[in-house]
Amino acid sequence: MRNLRWxxxxxxLFVSGCSAQSGSVEVPPTEAAVYPPSPAxxxxxxxxxxxxxxxxTRTALPAATQTSEPRILPYRIAYISENGNVxxxxxxxxxxxxxxxxxxxxxxxxxxxxxTITYCCPKWSFDGRxxxxxxxxxxxxxxxxxxxxxxxxxxxxxxxxxxxxxxxxIVGYDWRPGSYEIAFDTPIDIRYFIEEREANAxxxxxxxxxxxxxxxxxxxxxxxxLAGPIWSVGGQTxxxxxxLYMEGSGPFAYYDFSAGRYxxxxxxxxxxxxxxxxxxxxxxxxxxxxAGDERIWVREWDSEKETRIPPNxxxxxxxxSPVFSPDGERIAYFAALDGPESLETSVFTYQFSTGxxxxxxxxxxxxxxxxxxxxxxxxxxxxxxxxxxxWVIDTDRAEFRLIEKGQEPIWQPQ
Length: 414
Known about the structure:
six-stranded mixed sheet
């Protein structure tokens, strides 16, 4: 797992509306998902035009005013801008706010002595007050580039910047709900993979960004290094992976703070989402590379009974990256309908109460899918590496539009 995930993170740090026409078609019957209980009967799927990023009509935004002074706006999205800086955009106002202004990504045309500054991985605190992100600064020395990494947080109400962690590389971090603490993983020594595994296993740590207090939060009880912390909505449970090998993902595990219990499922899963009530998990099984037949599954935390989310694709398609809506009534996810060789990804939603599956459109190389706080909109990044854009989907109207150039969008909590 670490091979690809580390390479991905380091590459980021170093180098870094259209209306869907509604209709209804029958989908092969499938077992109804159990969260919440679905009515018995046939499933239907609302489909839209398979419109790619390159051909979609772009809805113009109001004239934008660019400023470095944050202020409260409804429906705000943080993202990494086209020029590599951290920025915020208001969905309806069209106002762009620059959080950073000093990005200078590496390019083959850069002078050899030039310092490079890159940003990635923005995440909001529970109340939208702080926006955290990674900064990488690389400068040439006698033999090679020396890179310094910082996890920073900006108070968007005052524009104050806090250096949370310095000279550390981590694969994952997450804000603890209801607090200004950040849980994070730590680097794994290469000896962990070749010798003395238990002696070199690392756990999950946590830091309070306001006073700098830091401590180990979850120790590696099974002798495995832990990575990729994700909090449940209520903050009572922290999920993570137990690392087995340098490539691929490891077994899914979690720590229940209310019970004071570490639990390992001994099962390897891919990307996942936790329901708002903290009782369910939706996941795919892409732990390394897709085989082309993966689906989305839902189950209770401690249950072995799981339910597949429809539809059953007629072609050699696979589904991945599920995300629960804020009310827990729907799941959004990506599907590559033409298999692993295709770059086109469709966005689907599944409604638990009705069993309805909707195809909201097709995008090139979709990623970073997330819901707006009120559950009406979805945001994602799509496009080629050189030309990625931030797209917003109105799930009520089945419309989508390009709002900015950039990547890694994330909604601000309200």
